[in-house]
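Anyone? Bumping this.
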Amino acid sequence: MDDELKRSIILDNFSNPKNKRVVDDPSYLTSNTNNESCIDNIDLFVKVEDGKIVDICFNGEACAISTSSTSIMIKNLIGKTIKEAKAYVNNFEAMVNEEAYDEELLNDAIVYEDIYKQKNRVKCATLPYTGIKKIINNLED
Amino acid sequence: MNRNDFLMLNQDIIFFDNAATTFKPVSVVNAITDYYNKYCCNAFRGDYKIGLIVDDNINNTRNLVKDYINANSTKEIIFTSGTTEGINIVAAGYFRKILKEHDEIILSKGDHASNIMPWQRLASELNLVIKYVDLDDSNYVTLDNIKRVVTPNTKVISLAYISNVIGDLRPIKEITNFAHQNGIYVVCDASQSVGHRKTDVQDLDVDFLVFSGHKMYGPTGIGVLYGKKDLLELTDPINLGGGMNETFTDFDYQLKELPTRFEAGTLNIAGIIGLGEAIKYINSIGIDKISEYEYKLREYLVNKLIKLDYIDIINLESDSGIVTFNVDGIFAQDVAIYLDKYNICVRAGNHCTKLLKDVINVRNTIRISLAFYNTTEEIDTLVDLLSDKDKIIREML
């Protein structure tokens, strides 16, 4: 994917993030994540039915990379089983940590494949993944 | 001015995060390396020549601090690790002993975590009440608003002299005057002011004042707690151990006199020597000259930023070199990362002032904090980069 296309996908997901809304529904599991600079703040709301993620939405205030990464992660996780979701999360983290990963599994999250070059942005890109892990790691596959 | 004194400025960098920490002049760095390379040994222990040099230097720094803040005596100058430790000693060492249930402490939502959390713990331990003074339309602390929140139960007012996001200079002298008429103690966090503004503890008449060396061109890990002598006499040290005990037996101990009783263990000797050198350095320029120059720089910056209609300046009128703003529609951290691509260091975030968002309705901001080594040319470079919003969006990723 060329850099211009990556940039436009990131900016589109930042300007028009998908599933940015609050739910007041106790059937949703929630987590909050601050990164270490304590600036980004994202709440995730996840609904799981029969071992499958049926809905995720988020709210909060975060930078362009965190916000877009959250939007893209949510799109990619809805419809996945917990086992598939864990594999997707591990794969994304492998990519940003410069480890071996499967490009096919990541869809448009591949736009962050070069983020490791910007050390101050790695935490931003992985912020929603830290949040989702707090939820799905407590669930059985 | 004096840019040649700072080796950090030899590289291609514009540093606008001086409220977090300042650069150190060569004289400070040399004094520290001289200690480690030429007369490295512990203090107040050695009957040898290099030991006496260390002892002299520590005593000299204490004297320099005393004169710098116009304290009455070196007995009132305690070396700490920084502002945070200073406030914790005051809260836990003095006020824990004298405050009673339902006593009230007045704080400001514009203040740093270090001037909030030690009081919160104390309040929870002793069942005290914390009250926050209302900030005015400019987010300033005023004496009138202090008077509104004071009750017969108020015992402590603890405020920064200059706040670290709004940058307002609080009317501490007037507040202290009013407070003392009403039997209220005043604690002052001078960390943002001490390197930029004259500090006179006798004129301010504060009961305790704390600051850090690293925000005044000195090293990290060293700070000062000033307290009025009669109050320090009643304050318990937090740390007990070597150097501060007069004697100890199997089950008892006696403490040394002020200020030594607060300085248990091996001192941060290099830090103390560096702090002394930093004070000499500031004195060689003149603190009033520094204040004046930094204020002019601030006005220069604000007058330029104000012309950009998509920039919202949070503290349009402020008395310090701190300018806090947001670029409409762009997250503060994205602006900071964009500027970093041009080697401009600014701070983005809540600046450890997490309660201020309740007042200014903005959680995160960009903060420029100036020092005397900044220049109008550096400000021109910054404003040029902020003058094209599309460029910021294009390049922030």
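Late reply, but here is one note on the structure posted above: The first strand of chain B starts at residue 14 and ends at 15.
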